[in-house]
Write a structure and sequence with these properties.
The structure holds two protein chains of two kinds.
Chain A lengths: L19 H6 L2 H17 L7 E4 L6 E7 L2 E5 L11 E5 L2 E4 L5 H8 L12 H4 L27 H15 L8 H9 L8 H4 L31 E7 L8 E2 L11 E4 L15 E3 L24 E2 L3 E3 L5 H8 L9
Parallel strand pairs in A: 4-7, 6-10
Antiparallel strand pairs in A: 1-2, 2-5, 3-4, 5-11, 6-8, 8-9
Chain B lengths: L6 H12 L23 E6 L3 H13 L3 E8 L2 H12 L15 E3 L3 H6 L5 E4 L6 H10 L3 E4 L7 H16 L4 E3 L7 H11 L6 E10 L17 H7 L5 H4 L2 H4 L2 H10 L7 E7 L12 E7 L5 E8 L6 E8 L2 E6 L1 E8 L3 E2 L7 H15 L6 H20 L3 E2 H5 L31
Helix pairs in contact in B: 2-3, 2-12, 5-6, 6-13, 11-13
The chains are: A alpha+beta, B alpha/beta.
């Protein structure tokens, strides 16, 4: 696919072969529901390319999808040890949400099962596991309307992607670390005028800001750097030397996973497309309960996410893997 | 993946992620007992094995390398099973979870069996209605105590706790309360600013505690046949005033406690309040909203707004207005002061729940007891006083609250007993007792 041609091919990829042990562990109910969502996604696959807007069905909440062309880039840098070695990565095309997922969007998922109106009932979407109702106000006073959702676990972000896929009929998932870095650099590398483009410690006044109120990057993506850090799908691990194609470092432990982009709370050196942060158990340290919530990170008030929609549709098994990539559980 | 980053790398990241303003939380407070040379076991008993009690046990086992959990109590064996399973999943604590079948106690008298099982420390984490009796039994038996908030649901219980706390002092026992904000270094720094005059003289305090309901009562149809009133009410404890004290006393008491802190733990003269129930909850007798106005001897007023209703605006904040500026907590991660003095918290915030236990166990090791008893009792009474004002529709003085004869906790409680649910309070009708 050429640059700018994020054409959607309805391609059923061959199923990932699973070991007998892994098969035994799979959740049949979840798998059956993923199959239903997959059917919906295939039925709804659109031919359009270019930027477009999605309104979440039965709501007035919308977000824009921005095409990111297939291509090759140099991932990593020589600046920090964990960004080395710089290596070539080839990626297929995808769309990415133009802005970070907002509370307006995320709260539809958080409170989906409490919706009093029967009009919005959807058994397949409702069958996706949902967050427990948060007890306290999860924006910590930083605001709801138009502000980025924060403090969710990677598991919660994965389940949001599954739910949104069921709702819209489009396949969504978290970006891989490579996809995130590629989209951030937008073919031009790091942005030079940080103050025009990003909310970070020097200009954020100690809180996150309304999404998409700084200048977007060359591909039309807002706040890739700053505002809130963003979840990726990958386990945080050293880069291996050599060129790779569509890499995804699958998680084998709940921590650490890779988080990107820096936040309202960070100094400029953290706001680089290649800078990496490792998730840590201390991010839900102030949850006084045992077991701790699998949905909320009480102490990550600077962490959110956005989703991608790959141009090449995955098969059912792959969808299952993306949406169940690393279940949260108690550390240690 | 084959490679894992080293711990050192992860720590580097934590530092970086901590950022300029320090919203990240560090993994431990600067060591208090790092020079610990005493290695004898401290035996811990847990009373109330729900999520919070299990968390408290985890913190106790984390606080001291030689703390051991040896006995537990609950009304339900399955809660005990869950609690022990979760604790045994924590690699560092698992070997010190030493609760035999013979030291797992179930029932309303289980707390006494834990106390009698030769433990050194008891963690009290049941619904608060039980607290005065449990605490009295612990101190009578010379146990150190971690005591979750609030410490009573009625004034007679508060008086009992005050007497018990005095006994703890005489016996040189440690008594640490779960009024966790008092142990949060970020909030400590903030109150230190206010106390040192950063906003001038405090004129008014406005606190909000707008949240979702905690544990709404299930439909009566879900009550198993033959389940007694007492069991039904204890299992759904958050819906009954005698057990939880109502939302103002059970949850918003955190805000009440911060008001007390700002007022240097001196009592108010009186308060008035409004409250009621908007969303039906058949079978329970708690309100779903309160607004209380306290007035202090120097004329300072404190306002507290509390709501537990689904689908409403939520906020948990504190606004202190002074003659020279304002201090705000909860509008963004860092507390800040604006006015003649401009200040925002910077630095790392430590885990306040862990801090409570770190200090408790250090105090026990050093033989220098700490005692939150008076403070935890007066903050609890301050909330009960607000509830009394809202329930009755009357102005309630501190003395009236302190001397109230209203005893909500039943004189006699039997697991299979019947227990009538008192009607929800009606302002203007319900009497101040």
């Amino acid at each position: 696919m050429g640059r700018g041609d994020a054409r959607l091919g309805v391609t059923i990829v061959s199923l990932v072969l699973l070991s007998a042990a892994a098969l035994a562990q799979t959740d049949e109910a979840e798998r059956a529901n993923v199959r239903r969502i997959s059917d919906r996604v295939h039925a709804a696959a659109r031919k359009s390319s270019g930027r477009y807007r999605v309104t979440i069905p039965n709501t007035t909440v919308s977000y824009d999808m921005v095409p990111v062309p297939a291509g090759e880039f140099t991932m990593g840098s020589t600046l920090k040890k964990d960004e080395q070695p710089p290596h070539k990565v080839r990626l297929d095309a995808f769309w990415m949400q133009a802005h970070e997922v907002t509370w307006d969007e995320y709260r539809l998922f958080m409170f989906a099962n409490e919706d009093a109106g029967a009009a919005a009932k959807d058994q397949t979407a409702d069958a996706v596991s949902h967050p427990t109702r948060p007890y306290v106000e999860m924006s910590f006073g930083m605001g709801i309307d138009g502000f980025p959702a924060i403090s969710m676990t990677q598991h919660a972000a994965n389940k949001y992607a599954e739910w949104l896929s069921a709702k819209t009929g489009e396949f969504y998932r978290l970006p891989t670390e490579a996809e995130w870095e590629y989209a951030c650099s937008a073919g031009t590398g790091d942005l030079s005028k940080l103050d025009d483009n990003a909310w970070y410690a020097a200009n954020s006044k100690g809180k996150y800001q309304t999404v998409a109120t700084r200048r977007p990057n060359a591909w039309g993506l807002y706040d890739m750097l700053g505002n809130v850090m963003e979840w990726t799908l990958d386990q945080y691990a050293p880069y291996l030397p050599g060129d790779v194609v569509n890499p995804w470092v699958k998680a084998t432990t709940p921590y650490p996973n890779a988080v990107r982009g820096g936040s309202w709370n960070d100094p400029p050196e953290m706001l680089r497309c290649s800078a990496r942060v490792a998730s840590d158990a201390s991010w839900k340290q102030q949850d006084p309960q045992l077991p701790k919530s699998i949905w909320y990170l009480t102490d990550a008030q600077w962490l959110g996410f956005r989703l991608v929609r790959p141009a090449k549709l995955p098969g059912v098994e792959e969808m299952y893997r993306y949406w169940n990539s690393g279940l949260e559980h108690e550390e240690q | 993946m084959k490679h894992q980053p080293t711990n050192a790398e992860r720590r580097d990241f934590l530092k970086s992620a901590g950022g300029a303003l320090g919203a990240a939380v560090a993994t431990g407070f600067p060591a208090i007992i790092s020079a610990q040379t005493v290695t004898n076991a401290i035996k811990v008993g847990l009373v109330g094995c729900g999520g919070r009690g299990s968390g408290a046990a985890r913190q106790a086992l984390t606080a001291d390398d030689y703390a051991e959990l040896t006995a537990v109590a609950d009304i339900d064996q399955s809660q005990i099973d869950n609690c022990l399973r979760n604790l045994k999943r924590l690699a560092k604590s698992a070997p010190r979870v030493k609760v035999e079948t013979s030291t797992q106690f179930v029932g309303l008298d289980a707390f006494q069996k834990v106390i009698d099982s030769k433990v050194d420390v008891v963690l009290l984490a049941t619904p608060p209605g039980f607290r005065p009796d449990h605490l009295a039994a612990c101190i009578a038996a010379n146990k150190h105590v971690f005591c979750e908030k609030p410490v009573s649901t009625d004034a007679p219980g508060v008086r009992s706790v005050m007497a018990t706390a005095d006994q703890a002092t005489q016996k040189k026992l440690s008594l640490v309360a779960g009024f966790c904000w008092r142990y949060n270094n970020m909030i400590q720094d903030t109150f230190q600013q206010v106390e040192s005059g950063a906003i001038g003289r405090l004129v008014a305090y406005y606190a909000t505690y707008y949240t979702s309901p905690v544990k709404p009562i299930p439909p009566a149809s879900t009550r198993p046949a033959g389940m007694s009133d007492v069991e039904w009410q204890i299992r759904n404890w958050y819906n009954f005033v005698w057990l939880c004290g109502d939302s103002l006393v059970e949850q918003a008491v955190h805000s009440v406690d911060k008001i007390a802190w700002a007022m240097r733990d001196e009592p108010p003269v009186s308060c008035v309040g409004v409250g009621g129930r908007t969303i039906p909850a058949e079978g329970g007798n708690i309100y779903d909203h309160f607004e209380i106005n306290y007035i202090y001897p120097n004329g300072t007023r404190a306002f507290l707004a509390n709501r537990q209703i689904v689908g409403c605006y939520n906020e948990n904040s504190d606004y202190m207005l002074g003659t020279d500026g304002a201090c705000t907590i909860g509008r963004g991660p860092q507390p800040r002061i604006e006015g003649k003095t401009n200040w925002a918290f910077s630095g790392q915030q430590y885990d306040m729940y862990q801090r409570e236990h770190d200090l408790l166990f250090a105090a026990i090791r050093k033989g220098q007891p700490m005692n939150d008893g008076k403070r935890m009792a007066t903050s609890t009474l301050l909330a009960i006083m607000g509830r009394m004002a809202a329930y009755t529709g009357q102005q309630v003085t501190w003395d009236q609250a302190m001397n109230s004869q209203e005893k909500l906790f039943p004189e006699k409680l039997e697991w299979n007993g019947s227990l009538e649910v008192k009607p929800r309070a009606l302002p203007g009708v319900t009497k101040l007792v």
